[in-house]
Amino acid sequence: MYFDKRMIYIILGILLITGILRMGSNEILNLILILPGLLIAITFHEFAHAYAAVKLGDDTPRRQGRLSLNPLSHLDPIGSVLLLFAGFGWGKPVEINPRNFDRKYSMAKGEAIVSVAGPLMNFVLAFLFAIIYFFILRFAQVWLLTTQIGQIIEIIIISTISVNIGLGVFNLLPFPPLDGSKIFISFMPFKIRNWLIEKQQIFYIIFLIIWITGLSGIIVKYPVQWITNGILWIVSMIFSFI
Q1: CB count in 10 Å sphere of residue 221
Q2: Is pTM, for the whole model, over 0.85?
Q3: Active-site amino acid positions
Q4: Per-domain residue ranges for the chain?
Q5: Which of 35, 45, 102, 151 has its CA 20 to 30 A from that of 83?
Q6: Are the CB atoms for 75 and 42 separated by under 8 Å?
């Protein structure tokens, strides 16, 4: 079955423009402050996929310019719009050729490693920015809370933590084009794996329905809260000993 993604891009473009036109000045400012976290989350997520694939022996991401920290190499229209307005989404998928992997792992395990590298990177980034946030709170709290620049930096750091966790959790859902689908497929028996790959377009449509109806937000809500609370608790415990 042929599924033209261009129509989805057009619809999302209209929704994006309509949404921005309905925004007030404060909402637009908040959107601008989210952009740094968005670019960091997507860029490092896709770079992690590319890096994992190259380390496993596949040079395809390097040849396609995806082994890069340039955000323009990794942005996907649908995933970026989702991240801006919903707090979860994805970047442009990194193309790999599992046949190029070395034989240390099977192709299925190699694909799973490459797929999980992106969400794992996001959780690591969230942890690192949580450390930065607590460090500033500990040693420069007055500056952070009483100056305009400090408040802007606080918003950017918090949004970076939030976007990274949202991106990581959302991409673990087992629906195309998300990483979770590739991880899930990698561990399926050969016949089931082929059937799932053949029906990817159908599952993509199911995923879009889940997103449009708001079910995706409900699904990821509690995992995002648990991981956020867990990261903040761990970092707070670390700083309690400093």
Answers
A1: 13
A2: no
A3: 46
A4: 5-240
A5: 151
A6: yes
